Amino acid sequence: MTSVQVGKDDGHGGKGAARADAPTGAAGAPGEDQGYHRALGARQIQMIAIGGAIGTGLFLGAGKGISKAGPSLILAYAIAGVVIFFIMRALGELLMYRPVSGSFSEYAREFVGPFAGFATGWTYWLFWVVTGMTEVTAAASYMTYWFDTPQWISALVFTIILYAANLISVKLFGELEFWFSMVKVTAIVGMILICLGILTLGFSDAGDTASVTLLWDDGGFFPKGIGGTLMTLQIVMFAFLAVELVGVTAGESKDPEKTLPKAINTVPLRIAVFYIGALIMILSVVSWTNFKPGISPFVAAFDEMGLQVGAAIVNFVVLTAALSSCNSGMYSTGRMLRDLALNSQGPRFFTKLTRNGTPLIGTTFSAGLMLIGVWINYQWPGDAFNKIVSFATISGMWAWVMILVSQIRYRAKADRGEVPQSSFKAPGAPYTSWFALAFIGMVVVLMGIDKDARISLYCAPVWALILGVSYLVLKKRNPQGAAFSRR
């Protein structure tokens, strides 16, 4: 049985937990771990960072992007990858100023205002709950490829296993994420090597036609025009959602000053290899005209190569990607709820930690909601569930916006000497942060143009209204929590 350990008198859940009103300071200041155990090593942080950048958006979603833009999707990933790097370097600067588990919610609270922290924390929590709902359901559906088992049983088993792993220790979470990410990395590297072999040695059914000229032979590099390429930017950005997860691990990293900058600085390399490199190889072996929305480009490529084992391999990899996302959701939701509670912006019982330093009640509450998602999917498998799922995209980008705005505000304060300078400054900031904000704004406009993505924008005002009303209630019942700010 897991016991709960609550700190004496401070009410913040766990001995040694930092008080919500603790003074800010340089990275690694005492108490900034807020009672968590710093158990995530460099190996795990690196793979968590890699895993956050590789998910079903690549393994499944890239098929839709290829059909809309052709080979120019490669360029879309490259441009978006630069923006993602700007976002991650902005986050890195904040993390080295003060590495805390609340991460961008804490920074939004400190540098933008208490409502910004409130909205960011609850929005990011909802993002992972909704993502967990969809991914655990997807993982269960992937299991039907091998086993004729009711989908709800697989979903229940996966949820219980990941929930238990997250409660046992943060180290076990990190270990699971390490191996989940390893499977994804191995699959992509394997695909790249196979494609290289076909291009150079000419084996498989695709050997006679494989050539890098396929990147421009079938209608050119921009077969659907520049407009088609622009419309894929939203698909591309959605594929990168969760790359910021490494920031949530800051409060539980063994050596954040070394591991986090290294993980962030390798973002361009990861995008270059796992996204751009993989797409260049696939589209050089198989013409872009053979890819269709809803079908994994990896599966389609294996089929064109005549490698029948490909479907089973990709199904296993996509299952792993879904479980990885669920695992990340279990981890981050509990931390976000506890951060909100520590700052009097959430129920106080969410502050409790187990002896192993895991947020018991927050993780349990979130896991329970993820199971409700399985039931919703069973009852209304059509539009009702898709409307809920669509919100994940816009809520994920909200976290990016808050990271950038917080970094801009932080840099201005640091330059005035009001707060300590970070040891990991974002190059080109604040101009790179402003550029990234403008880019995200353009993506939101494109979402409004695309009828398939427009539903995300309809969900946003509803959630904003809920947050606004909730904050007014909080302000009335607990003025201290509503007014709290580190500024």
From TrEMBL:
One of the GO biological process terms: transmembrane transport
Localization: Cell membrane
GO cellular component, as recorded: plasma membrane
tRNA processing found in the keyword field: no
Biased composition (Low complexity): 17-31
Region spans: Disordered: 1-33
Domain annotation Amino acid permease/ SLC12A: ranges: 45-478
Recorded topology in the membrane: Multi-pass membrane protein
Keyword tags: Amino-acid transport, Cell membrane, Membrane, Transmembrane, Transmembrane helix, Transport
InterPro entries per UniProt: AA-permease/SLC12A_dom, Amino_acid_permease_CS
Residue intervals passing through the bilayer: 47-66, 72-91, 111-131, 151-173, 185-206, 226-248, 269-289, 309-332, 353-376, 388-410, 431-449, 455-474
Keyword Transmembrane: yes
Sequence similarity: Belongs to the amino acid-polyamine-organocation (APC) superfamily. Amino acid transporter (AAT) (TC 2.A.3.1) family.
Name listed for the protein in its UniProt record: Amino acid permease
Organism for this UniProt entry: Streptomyces jumonjinensis
